[in-house]
Each structure stands twice: as structure tokens, then as C-alpha cells.
Amino acid sequence: MSDFVFAPAPVPSLPVAGSSALFPIHRIYCVGRNYADHAIEMGHDPSREAPFFFQKNADSVLPPGADFPYPPATKDVHHEIELVVALKSGGSDIPAGEALGHVFGYGVGLDMTRRDLQAEAKKAGRPWEVGKAFEHAAPCSALQPAEQTGHPRQGAIWLKVNGAARQQGDLNQMIWKVPEMISYLSGLFTLRAGDLIFSGTPAGVGPVVRGDRLFGGVDGVGSLDLAVR
């Protein structure tokens, strides 16, 4: 007999490329304004200030092959293409020099954002969850194990909407690199196996509407293809 008052929800997960195994998701951390050009387009100073993070829910993940349902209560949903870092282990106060040893692999994700609701929250000095942590807000590709991809430090990151280029950058433009992100984040939270880190987006973020087709990727890691419905 179960000790729970009702059946627990299934564990959110992502497929692993080349394997039948699934990667169970613990938490999703997102780093904000980690490309200078994106910081500028959002009206902020691109200097190397301390990184900041927000969270999405683990069950915000939209697995590969599924379309993105346009969410309620908004008229301005934006795309943000990102490299996703998947952890196989964690801890607290992880030195940057040891951080990559905790990485299972990498994927391609979209930080979908209800920009109008986020802007209202910013203006009122309130948290961003209403703009960032809604259902299906984190479309993601299958994960590629680091033993196959290595740890990418450079490579094109890009997004097309209906075949037209919207976002274009390179991983070497990230203000805070992956080891630094993991190290800094582990000083704020105890990281665990199953954590995903969305590592920031280059410039070119913009709105989507129902019927749009989004196709993006990170060279050497993978791609993501979905429709907005």
C-alpha cells in the first residue's frame, strides 16, 4: 500500500541520444543575461557583473518531438535559444576547476518567456516565475553525453523562425562560462544529479505566434525543431 495520499506524478525526464535510458530531471536553473549583446538589447549594462539565476519547474520541460502550446494570460511569448548543461552529480561550493567533472552532457533548449508578464513583474519588483515557469516553458532536445561531445567552449548557437534567422551567436561569447556557472550556482544551492542549467541566450530574442516553426541548435551538440500551436 502506498504511503502517499495520491499517486505521485511521473518523474520529468529527457531522452539520451543513442540510448534507451532517460535522464531524470531534478531542478532547472537558468542564468540571466549571459551574452553581452542580449544584455544590451534588454537595456542592461553588459559588464561582467555577478551572475544571477532564476528557476523553471522540472515539469516545465517539453521533450523533443512535441510542439509548444501557446500559453494562456499572455500576448507576447518570446523565444530564447540556449545551451543546456545536464549534471550527473553535484554538491556545494564546487571549485570551477572541478565543475566539468559533474557534467553528464549537453542539450539544446528554449527558455520560452511570457515577456509581457515578466515585464510587469520587473516593474513591480516581483519574482519572474509567472513569466518563466509556466507549463511547457522549457522545450529541450535529447541530451548528448559529454563523453561523445566533449565540453563545448565555442560553436555557433542559432535559431530560425519559419526559416528566417532570428538568433545567432557563439558559445565563446558567454560572459560566464560553464565551469564558472556551476561553481557560482553551487554556492547558492546544493546541486544534484539531474539538475539542468540553461546557460543564457544570444541577442535576437523575439515573439512567436501560433503556426510558427522554430528550428535551432548548437553546433556539435544538437538541434531542436518544433511548432507553436
From TrEMBL:
<dbReference type="InterPro" id="IPR036663">
    <property type="entry name" value="Fumarylacetoacetase_C_sf"/>
</dbReference>
<keyword id="KW-0479">Metal-binding</keyword>
<protein>
    <submittedName>
        <fullName>Fumarylacetoacetate hydrolase family protein</fullName>
    </submittedName>
</protein>
<keyword id="KW-0378">Hydrolase</keyword>
<dbReference type="Pfam" id="PF01557">
    <property type="entry name" value="FAA_hydrolase"/>
</dbReference>
<dbReference type="InterPro" id="IPR011234">
    <property type="entry name" value="Fumarylacetoacetase-like_C"/>
</dbReference>
<dbReference type="GO" id="GO:0016787">
    <property type="term" value="F:hydrolase activity"/>
</dbReference>
<feature type="domain" description="Fumarylacetoacetase-like C-terminal">
    <location>
        <begin position="28"/>
        <end position="225"/>
    </location>
</feature>
